[in-house]
Structure formats: structure tokens, C-alpha cells
Amino acid sequence: MANYVAPLKDMTFLLNHVADSRGFNQIEHFADFDPALVSAVFDEAAKFAGQVLSPLNQSGDIEGCHFNDGKVTTPAGWNDAYQQFCSNGWLGLALPEAYGGQSLPRFIAAAVHEMWLSSNLSFVMFQALTQGAAEILLSANDDSLKQRYLEKLVTGEWATCMSLTEPGAGSDLGNIRTRAVRQADGRYRITGQKIYITYGEHDLTENIVHLVLAKTPDSPPGGKGVSLFIVPKYIVDQSGQCGELNDVRCVSIEHKTGLHGSPTCSISYGDDGGAIGELVGAENRGLEYMFILMNEARLSTGQQGVAIGEMGYQRALEYSQERTQGRDLLSGDTDVQIARHPDVKRMLMGLRAQVTALRALSYQIASRLDLAEADPEKRAAHLRFVALMTPIFKAFSTESGNLMAGTTIQIFGGMGFVEETGVAQLMRDIRVTTIYEGTTGIQANDLVFRKVQSDQGEALTELIADIESDFACYAALEIAGSETEMLVQLIAVLKESSQFILQQGKEGRETLLCGAVNFLELMGIACCSWMMMRTAVAAYEQKQQSTDTLYLDNLIALSRFYFAHFTPKVLALHRTLISAEMGIQDYRFEE
Amino acid sequence: MANYVAPLKDMTFLLNHVADSRGFNQIEHFADFDPALVSAVFDEAAKFAGQVLSPLNQSGDIEGCHFNDGKVTTPAGWNDAYQQFCSNGWLGLALPEAYGGQSLPRFIAAAVHEMWLSSNLSFVMFQALTQGAAEILLSANDDSLKQRYLEKLVTGEWATCMSLTEPGAGSDLGNIRTRAVRQADGRYRITGQKIYITYGEHDLTENIVHLVLAKTPDSPPGGKGVSLFIVPKYIVDQSGQCGELNDVRCVSIEHKTGLHGSPTCSISYGDDGGAIGELVGAENRGLEYMFILMNEARLSTGQQGVAIGEMGYQRALEYSQERTQGRDLLSGDTDVQIARHPDVKRMLMGLRAQVTALRALSYQIASRLDLAEADPEKRAAHLRFVALMTPIFKAFSTESGNLMAGTTIQIFGGMGFVEETGVAQLMRDIRVTTIYEGTTGIQANDLVFRKVQSDQGEALTELIADIESDFACYAALEIAGSETEMLVQLIAVLKESSQFILQQGKEGRETLLCGAVNFLELMGIACCSWMMMRTAVAAYEQKQQSTDTLYLDNLIALSRFYFAHFTPKVLALHRTLISAEMGIQDYRFEE
């Protein structure tokens, strides 16, 4: 399979002209931030993704990870790539310089992170873990933990993992059974079994810092009694040096349908008396800390949908321009590139349009995180936006990613079903992304109840206002045609659906629970339509000062394609939402 | 993974009360046809599927087929199962008794075939090939071929395979390069390379009868110059006995992402001077014959969507009733079966509703094939219906099957991504079904241009009349509620879309080519909605004379669920259809 080529032109266009990062150089906070540096960073990252990570993607899938007597060996090439990745400073790109990071804005890190995910998703899964773990340590306000762990994590000298799930506690973390008992020295003894621990054990680093959720004796029941502990594979002393092996053991790794290069571990803590753990922050605040990491992981997971979509698009475009088959049903030409068949062109454009819209959304979220840093006055509004978008982006992008992997295979035809071409791997790798870090159903409930109802619709109302304002810009363009009618309907449907959610009280709760996923998808399409309106407007404006007409006209065509092929889905989703409980209430499982 | 349990109750309900098979015992042609026999056949088939084929499904996936020096070895257990399958008479269930078959109606064969496909899709892929090959021989009117081949194929003593695709000719079979040169004895010398030959080589039978498309010298270009040949692995003499090995060689088998138990072969014909082939029918009529088999294969492929959906539903239901997690967000109960979470219940009902609708459609098509036999006067109308439904059922059912496999994994959560649970195999196995026997795009073009436009909408108009008549029955029921409004819209959209297709002349051709897949999906949902109206009506009527209230009420609930969660999609599909070329015409690939 051909190596990944970072779509720098598309990325740069969206960052410079579409996402809110477009106004960055006018913001004081980023005043000393050199655009030439961005370009240099992107070039280097593109090189590393294309030349180092991408070539390992298929070999890593074929070889997989090895488990032997508690040890996990990553696929050939992983270790070298990891050392280079860290020594090049990629790991801590958006983390503080004070701890060995680069302190670059999030929007740059988002574009770079997407390159890693496209080129080798299995490999780079540790990065979001490190980003999240570092943010937990930064927020937990414990100088000893910061001093001893942070720099080693940010530089990649040590790795981290997130130890949440247990056989009886997946989506419901309040149910965990892992115990933590405080000792005289203030440290804890941890005992319990954890499963599905990504990079829970491996051969890449000297030490692995496990972030473990556990319950202390007499803690309150449910999620309110969960605490977070640092449990290093090798115990770290007060000076920050690795000492003896902790009572932590990798029991097995999973045999998964995809992500073969990423070890998914079952870990046993405390078989031999209790693993030594250090409390993060205060007891019983574990889920709160863990959600810092979880939100980070959800954004990264959303990006995985974009990244696999991009990889699929690249492969499908290349294949469909090489493969000739059949007659052009319009011109009558024979043996044409299959890319010229309208149905294949439709699929290719569908891939590029979805990737473009979701990528823009990803950069938009990252930009608002940056703006939250830059502008304390509007910080709350920016964070409200990010909180609203997190479940939408996580779930909608990964659901789209699965569909895009399917479309890629479809374009390849029979060749897509053959493993050698590498596109079946995209389908296998992406499949778990709608599950881990909270399933689509969980994201939908988070959206409807926490992000819309509990918020009294504040963030949502602000979002709709933004969409309306960008629609006005689009509709005013001379290029706007009959599709504006669909966009007018989109906004109407969006308002109606939002009102519907906000108006439901207790008696409407079942309808919301049954229709939450429909609302989430509706929001996903609305946000992507929004980004495509912005894309079209930006392309139109750029045309006034650029000669890159083909590229810019294609972006406009892609936007209109989105409005014709994706936006109409909101009509169906709205219809389902408002009677979502139909049949479900009356249906009884037969025992 | 638990074994497959044939859903006999659902199957029987749909056959007896929903599909057109419901009136069978009143038709003279089937007068001597004993319902007790049907029941006995179903019981035996269910046993064989559950106890013999299903246990081999996962082991066959893990082991796969072996290739060594031209020989293919099927997975452990395959050979025994094959011998039993044939000696029990399952292979020729719907083929003539005169040649060793059972002459059972198609609607019975359809239900039984679904059991095989659910329990072990990889294994049973040979059956549709045999069914199709037998029908070719029956129609080709060549007594020598019939006498020497037919009984051996129908009884399974010999197997068959369909040798169409070449590296440069997949969807476009007019492009094949395999040559056939007539010899003095009337037989032909065949030379060429074929790929993607399902069961092209294996260890199950003494002989394998290859049906090979090839071109004779000076034949017309394109599809009109393609002929069909029988090329047996061992040459068959005039008395029907196997003689020496033919010049046919299996070169390799594919390493696929799914269907590991079904060998997909590359075959080389004539490396050593030319394989001996016998012409079927007349020269240059190869595609016409092959389409007899192809239509058979398309209907079988459509059933694969139903079958994998059913298997996924069974597994997901079982898992979601065992697995407890989280709090019931309505009652507040803790540690509830995940099946009780509204979003999971929604997914489970979605699986059962889709399977029910598609299964009913499958039986409806089979019934109309039977009716075509039974009633010469209406034969043309019945066959018109089947011709119209073939691309819809093939493509929509397999696209749905892919989505259903995804939903099954989603219900399993993290466990679904782990291969041991067996549900990832469903996703891998089903993936090729939207590709082989004609991609979804090809089915959509067949539907729009051949089955609707060329037919002047005759079959489609008849279908819409049927749907309207069943809607009237549904709307008249006391149980009909607000969903009738959606059904009224469905019929309106169906008529508008049909008119749109019929009204497009040459200048609208691009729109149709870009929107054909949308029209096909719209038709699929319309037909499934139709079957669910019939299901609800039948359940309502049965309630007057049955005490099986829970079961029948659930069917009604399932129908209403379908109208709320699936039927609304036609609103979006119609919208996309009528402006499907938007953006596509203007988009130019960058070289």
C-alpha cells in the first residue's frame, strides 16, 4: 500500500481560512507566534508520518503484538519509531515548555496529531494518553507528582496508560471493584483486575505510569466513591528515580479484529500483596480527574474518524485513477478510469467532503480551546462550545469514519476484500472507535442531557446563531443556488429539534433516550454543513486574490455536494427524533 | 460463540401470513403439497444448521483454507459436513426430482437457504452456484450436457464454480481475454486467467465443473462476443465418466478479510496447450446464460444480508440480556441488563425489524417465482416483479447487512472488537456482499435504467399499486396511529421519485447516474415498509384467533418502530435524488 501523504494544502486552507484559527495572528496572546514555524512543523511532521510511521502500518497489522510471560513486544520498527517520535519532540507538542513540551497552540497540534493517526493509528495511540495524563497532573496541583512525573511523561521517557475498565465495569465506572487501601506512608495498596488497557504493557519505555481508578474502603457508592491513583510499573521514589518492580502484572493481550499494533492489555494489580499507588488530588474525585483525560481522548478519537477517512480517500482516489473498467455512460468512452463513473465519483467526493467537513470541525474545536486560553473574558463561552461539541465530534466522526472505511473498500471492489491492499485494515482498525472512550449511545446521552438540557440550551443557542450568521454569508454569495433552500430547512429543523429537546420534561424522557443518537447525528450533520458553508465562503473569497482556481472551485463544488448528499439526512433524523419511542415502549422481550 | 438457532416461528409467520406464499394451499399447482412436510423439512434443516454447520463457522474462520502446490484444502469438518449436506438432499431442494432434486417450492428453499447462510456463510457458498449452474443446463437445451452433468451437480457428487472475473475484467465482463478455439471434435481449447473464483478448487468433490466465460476468435467485441463453456477439472467423456485431468490449475487463493472458509481461487486455464471445454448453448450467448446464474446468485447474496443480520441479532440479544451495566435511566434500577437501556433496545429492535422486513421481502420474491410457475397467465407480471426486485434486494439487503453487523458489534461494546466473541467475523464476512455478483452501484444502474426506464415503469407501477393497497389495509386497522402520516408521505415520495426517474431523458442522465444508489435505497426502504405494513396487518388478524398475544403485539410494535426509525429516510433520499448531480458535475480531479 502506498504511504500516507499529509494533505497539507487542505489542512492549511482550513486552518487559515475556515476554522476560528483564521484570525490568530491578530490575537495578542499569539502575537509572537510565527506562521513560518507552523509551516516548518507541518513539513517535518508530514515527512515523519509519511516516511517513518506509514511504512510500519501494514507490517504492524500483520505482525501484531506478542505476549509472553507477562511481557509485551510491539511489532518490528515500533521501538525505533517511538524513540524518534519522542526525540523529535512530537509527543509534547501542545504541552508546556516548562516540562519539556513545545507549547504550540492546539490547532497546530490537532493538524499534526491527525497526521499520526492517518499514518499509523495503532502506533500513536499513546499520544492522547500522554496529553491527557499530563493535563491531569497539571490540574491536580501536587508539586511532588508534577516534579517527579511530568517531564518524563512529556518527553516520552516514560509512557502512561489509562486503567479504567474492569470485566464488570465498562460504561459504568461507578461499579469498579479495584480497591485502594491507604498505608502509613500516605501511599496506597492497590488490588484489582483491569481490562482493555491500551498500551498497558510494552517494550517502548523504561517505565509505564498507570492511571488507575480504584475505591478506598468506606467510600461512597457509585461514581462518587472513585479515586484516581498513579501506579507506576516501577515504583518511583521521592527523587523521581525508578526503583523496584511494582506489583503490576500484564496477564494477557486481546486478539482484536483491528489495531493489532496497539497492545490491549489485561492487567492484574496486587497479586502479591498490593501494588503501590499514589493518590492524585483528593480521594473520591477520581472520575473528575479522569474526565480531563477522557475529554482529551474523546477529541483524539473523533480525529481518528477524520484520519482514517483521509487515508481511505487517498487510497481510493489513487486506485480509482489507476483502475480502468467499463464504458463512460455519458461520453461513451471505453476502458475509462473508474473515478470517472458518476457513482464512483460520488463516493470519492463523499469521502473528501466528509473528511473536509469533519477536519474543519476538529480544527474549530481546537481553535476554541486556544481562544479559551487567549481570551479570559470569553473563556466560558469557548469552553461551553467545546463541551457541546465533544460528544458530537467524538461520535459522529467515528460513525462517519466507519462508513468511510466501508466506502473505500467499495471503491476498491473485490480488491478491497483482499487484505494485501490494506484498505480492509482501515475498516478493522476504525471499528472500535465508536465504542472506546464512551460509545455513541453514551455520547448521545451526554449531549442531550448534560450538554443541552442541563445547560438550558445556552451553548446550543450560541452555536445556532453562529450557523445562521455563516449561512447569511453563504446565501449572499453569487454562487449560492437552489441548495440554499435546503440550508434554510436545515436551520429550521435544527431549531425545532433543539426546542423539542429542551421542552421535554420527565414524561418525554423515554423519547429522548430512544432518539438521542438521532439528535446527535442531526447535530453532526448540521455542524459539518456549517463548516462547508464556511469552506465555500472562504474559497469564494480566496478566488478574488488567488489563481488557484481549480482547487478553490473544487472546494465550492464539494460544499454544494455536501448540501445535496448529506444535509438532507437531517429531515429524516428530525422526523425520527420526534417519535423515537414509537414501538419501543410497546415492545417486550420474550424471556 | 453460541450456535445458530433457526428462527422457525418468525420464518413460518412470514411465509404463512405475510409473503404471497400465504395463499399457497389454494393454488392447484401446489395442491398436493403438504404443509406437514414443510414443517418437517424446516425442523431437519434447523437441526443441521444449528448442530452441524454453525459449530464449524468460527473454527473455519480461524483455520481458513490451505493452498499447497495447486491443491486447496478446506477447513477441518468441511468435508464431512459437505457429504452430509448432499446426502441429506439439501443441495437440490428446489431443483427437479428428475435429476436428483426435491422439486420443493422456492419459498421453502428460500427459508432453508437462509438457515445455511446464517449458520455458516463461508461453507454454503457453493449452493447458489449449483442452483444457478443447474438452471443454465436446464435452459440451454442440450441433452448431452444435461445427461452427463446435471444429476451429478444436483446431488453434489460434483461441484461447480463460476469463472467470470479476470484481472482486467470485473464489472465489465465484455472485456475478458480468455480465448476459446473450436477443435475438430466440436470441443474447445480454453486459455486464460481467471480470478476471484469461489470454490474454484477444493477437496470436497471428485470433480469440479467450471463455468467459464471466454471469447472465440473473430467474435464481436464487448459483451456480445462472450460465450460460456463447461470446463471440468477432470474431463468428462461421452458416457459421463471422469477421465484425465484437464489443463486447469489453481494458482493461488486470496487472503481475504472474511469468508476464510470459502476458497477464492485464481485459476489458470490452458497453461499446457489449452483446457478442454464444451460450449453451452450457442456461441456469443454466454452473458445471457451466465445471467441465469447471476440472478440466482444475486438473490442468494441478498439473503446473506438477512442471514448475517439474523445471526447478529441472536448474538446481540443473548449478550445484552446477560450483560448487566449501569442504571436504568427511567426506573432508576441499577445493574440492569443492557437490553433494557433504551438505546440498546433501539439497536436490538432495529436489527429485528430490518431482518423481519428483509426476510419477508426475500420470501415475497421467492413466492412470486413459484407463482410464475403456477400461473402461466400472470407469469410475465410475476417475473417482472422479480426482475425489478432483484437489484433492490441484492443491494439493499447487503448494505443493510453491513450496517447490522456493525450494530451487533456496537451492542457488544469492547467485547465486539475482540475476535473470540465471533461478532467481528460477521462484519468481516458480510463486507464483500455489496461487491460480488455486481456492486451496489451496478445494481442501482440496473434498477434505474433496465428495470424502470426500459420497462416504462410497468413493474414499478404495479408495485406501487400493491403497496397502496396494503397501506389501505393497514390504515383501516384500529391500531394505526400517527405513523400513517409518514406512510402517506412514503407513498407520495415513491410516486414522485418514480416519476422523476421516468421523466429524465438524455439530459437528465447524469443526475440519474449520480442518484441511482439513492433511488435504490429509497426503493429498499419502501419495500421493507410495505412488508412491515403487511406484517402488522397479519399480526393484527392473527390476534383475533390466537392467544400468542406477546408475540403478535411485538410484531406490531416492530412494524411501527420501522415506520418511525427507517421509513423517514426516504425523505432525505428523495431530496438527494432530485439534485444528485449537484457539485459532481463541477468537480474536476486534479492530475
Automatic annotation (TrEMBL), chains A, B:
Q: What is the required cofactor set for this protein?
A: FAD
What's a Pfam family this protein contains?
A: Acyl-CoA_dh_1
Keywords linked to the UniProt accession: FAD, Flavoprotein, Oxidoreductase
Domain Acyl-CoA dehydrogenase/oxidase N-terminal: residue ranges:
43-157
Acyl-CoA dehydrogenase/oxidase C-terminal domain location is 284-447
Is Ubl conjugation a UniProt keyword of this protein? Answer: no
Molecular functions per Gene Ontology: flavin adenine dinucleotide binding; oxidoreductase activity, acting on the CH-CH group of donors
Q: Where in the numbering of this chain does the Acetyl-CoA dehydrogenase-like C-terminal domain appear?
A: 480-579
Superkingdom of this protein's organism: Bacteria
The record ties this protein, via Gene3D superfamilies, to: Acyl-CoA dehydrogenase/oxidase, N-terminal domain, Butyryl-CoA Dehydrogenase, subunit A, domain 2, Butyryl-CoA Dehydrogenase, subunit A, domain 3
Record has Flavoprotein as a keyword: yes
Which stretches make up the Acyl-CoA oxidase/dehydrogenase middle domain? 161-269
Family assignment? Belongs to the acyl-CoA dehydrogenase family.
Question: What is the protein named?
Answer: Acyl-CoA dehydrogenase
